[in-house]
Design goal:
Blueprint (H helix, E strand, L loop, with lengths): L3 H7 L14 E9 L3 E4 L4 E10 L5 E7 L1 H5 L9 E5 L2 E4 L11 E4 L5 E4 L7 H5 L2 E2 H4 L7 E11 L10 E7 L5 E7 H14 L5 E8 L5
Parallel strand pairs: 4-7, 9-10
Antiparallel strand pairs: 1-3, 1-5, 2-3, 3-4, 5-8, 6-7, 10-11, 10-13, 11-12
Organism: Nicotiana attenuata
Family: Belongs to the replication factor A protein 1 family.
Pfam family, one: DUF223
Amino acid sequence: MATEVELSKQCLPISKVPKYSSDWVIKVFVVRRSKVIPYKNQRNEGVFKTLILVDEEGTKIQATLFNKHVEKWKDFFEPSRSYFIINGRLDRVNPNYSSVHKEVEIAFTDNTIIKESKTDISTQEFSNGFLFLEEAEKLTDGTIFDVVAILVTVKPLIGEGRSRRREIIVTNERSDLTSITLWGDFAENDGELLEKMKYDKPILGFCDVRVSIYK
């Protein structure tokens, strides 16, 4: 295994990773890690876990671990930590599922190596992409954006399956109130975490929020 210094010299930004090559190294910061989710379809069944990662340029990408790789890397990808991913694979985004990158996502193979970094990457470029709530309110219906807001309250989880959802109310320094709806795994897991934090009124960053205007 190469040293951290050697890996850092080999690192590519996500935007420069060759789409049809698995011979590359990237360094990413873990924004989110989902719980282990079971799946079943006509061909097979198993479990998967999704990750949202960001590099030093501020480029976000989703990664998915399936079955044996969920178990293999269960002690890795802690949120707010940085990791090297070596010899992964870029797959085209499935248009039937949402993803934080428009074109590709990371898949793991038997040759993939993960190494935790002793030094975190800078998230300055990532942070610069966030809007304030008052700026977000000027966006048109369907726009996807990142936003910073203050948590006010968290409503109960409702619905079942893919319809599980939870509404949270956020505000800004002007005391404008806006609702954000969390769906599925976000509603259950992240919503539960926010429920525990609501009395502290934390400042939160939300990634890939979609504007929905109801008339």
